[in-house]
Amino acid sequence: MDDKIEGKWDQAKGKVKEEAGKFGGDKSTEIGGKIDQGKGKLKEGFGEVKEELHEQVGSPRRYGMDDKIEGKWDQAKGKVKEEAGKLGGDKSTEIGGKIDQGKGKLKEGLGEVKEELRDEPVDR
What is the pTM of this model? Predict the structure, then answer.
């Protein structure tokens, strides 16, 4: 599914979850819904950036940029997850978010290496 569409869908689900939490007096569910909406907005924005990049540059994969972009995206998702864990008092989610951020940094670094290799002349 397209990131923009997925992001809109996540926002809609988050809104329903938030309203259900308000209706039921469950603050945790309400906050979870708001977090899901934020994640959806991030995902939608990421889809827009990818789409614009593809229009401007062509396929980002051939430049190693796809890994860099996905790495940044993973870092952002990890940060949201970490903060959600802190808000909800869930150490496991908080730590998982930090791990996701680390994976994102690695993926971004891989993209940078690919980009460097692409720019290097080939000796034969």
Answer: 0.53
